[in-house]
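User: Assemble these into one structure.

Assistant: Restating your components, then the assembled model:
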Amino acid sequence: MSDLTKLTIAGARDALARGETTAVELTEACLSEIEAAGALGAFVHKTPEIARAQAEAADARIKAGEAQGMTGIPLGIKDLFCTKGVNSQAASNILDGFKPEYESTVTTKLFDAGAIMLGKLNMDEFAMGSSNETSVYGDAVNPWKVDDRDLTPGGSSGGSASAVAADLCLAATGTDTGGSIRQPAAFTGITGLKPTYGRVSRWGIVAFASSLDQAGPMTKDVRDAAIMLGAMAGHDPKDSTSADIAVPDFEAALTGDIRGKVIGIPREYRIDGMPAEIETLWDDGKAMLQDAGAKIIDISLPHTKYALPTYYVIAPAEASSNLARYDGVRYGRRAKLAAGDGIVEMYEKTRAEGFGDEVQRRVMVGTYVLSAGFYDAYYNRARKVRSLIKRDFDEAFDQGVDAILTPATPSAAFGLGEMADADPVQMYLNDVFTVTVNLAGLPGISVPAGLDAKGLPLGLQLIGKPWEEADLLNTAYALENAAGFVSKPQKWW
Amino acid sequence: MSIDIETARKVAHLARIKVDDDRLPALAAEFNNILGFIEQLGEVNVDDVEPMVSVTPMRLKRRADEVTDGGYPDKVLSNAPDAREGFFAVPKVVE
């Protein structure tokens, strides 16, 4: 078979079952695409030996008739996931050389299902960024191009998005704290799903903001997202916030029938300065869902405007606490000390040279908002506003809304380096449509829905009710069918 | 709320991040920019609103208080920048 790496998970699963290809062939095809794609900066640690061993085991399993949906599927794994014996650095200098002695729950589940790890993927340092420019490995690059400029694949899961869009792997893991799966998916024309908080175990994933972080699949289409989520999800006693509820068969929910479903359009998402193309895309999306038999209603989520400032209190506060563990004692790097330096100098020098600028900035902002005298004014106030943001969604769902349709991002992919002189708050605005979903703990999915005038992909976001990923995926499937997005980037790398 | 250079120095120290004196003014300016953005939260009426503790209303699981893991100090120490004789080694803490 030709073009093996272009297969979807479902396509590869069926080809494997019919004996038209093998996991070894699929894996070798991906490994050679990865070798030739250095210019994308997507794979930062390659694991061909592990991949080949897993592929052989998968072929044996398929032969024995014991295959599951993910058996024999070659994946990329975001560097944020701890993988046993393989560098897991969260794209940070402070975890230079860190090789965990354990495997994250998500990768354990994927490997137990027979999936194959091709290597680790680039990302923003500690998942803090929206352009993959804060990585210690250097930028990941978007395979989509419209002129001489290299474009960002988005962030923080930029390497995952780039690798899937460029067909270096069949799918990838991502994580999403404020939009880090959905924004890069939109920038690269792929599908990205952030599950309900608690659906997927966080154990073994380097923590950024624990009340917001959630891992999810980044795939070539909605069906693949359903298959891969099924393999990632489930209760884990090692994560006290993981929900002990049954994991449905997400793929079986994909009927494409959304007749009678109620889709809410939040008026507050029509922001000032939104490009006309985004507005048109949103209108097109409404029309597509309506044509498919859904009922479109206007809704209000009045606290939307406060979501970003709330996020930029809560996320840095939790990060400052989570990142306190990087002290140069137990793992990662320690700064070279001068004669007479004590333990405090060791901490301060190690963290100054180990953390990049954006991570330092967020740790210090978090430290400030948690410090005595400011805790109530900033942190507690933000937690109260977060309650109001969640209440807005609860009220919309109580009115009978099944899902909410919004744009995924306020623009298409921008050029790498173009935001270098902008203040950090400008970069934060990338997450304006996605961050509410993390604050409210809801599932959200970005589906590629069109191209802008220059030919760059644009995504629409659907937001679902808690634990209703199956229904959300089905609505996304209907949108995908109607949008008929089939464009791929021209290969230049 | 405005952050001066002394406050920036104090926050950097609380965060245990060494920031050279010549970088403090720029850092204070960045803080002020971000905090200016956060100030908007002051507009929201939060009277009688409970701060969010858990985004999904669920009771955390409990289990018996017993040892379920451990007994491999070599693995625990395998990534340490400096480990000696089964311990993490750090600069002298107590005179």
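Chain A has a mean pLDDT of 97.
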